[in-house]
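SAMPLE LOG
Freezer: B-3
Tube label: C17
Construct: single chain, 122 aa
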Amino acid sequence: MILEEPSQVNQEGVMGEEEKPMKSAIELALERTTHFKKDAEKAALPKEKIKRISEIEKEYQAKVAETEILLESRFKKVVQTLAPEEAPIHIEALREEFQKERESLNKKKLLEIEKVKGLPPT
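STRUCTURE (predicted):
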């Protein structure tokens, strides 16, 4: 690699595409702990529960996809029926509605998963 300016060189002597700040030891430990916790949870659950959790995740993924399809059709209807200056306002309202629906579905999904795991609801 040929560098044109010395300012393009980082501490290791190589230019990085996007310099990221170094993570602290605490941040690295938290990432590892989170990773190990997820693995430990899966290992501790019986296969039937893991299968049910997978089914719940697929079910809610399908519900979100269905909501996205309905939203897309509503977008098209708004664009076709409203004046160009009114459409952006209604589209933004639809986006906010979709975001709320998505959050609601995610909460329901997490509650169902917690029930399967036998955890108290949070």
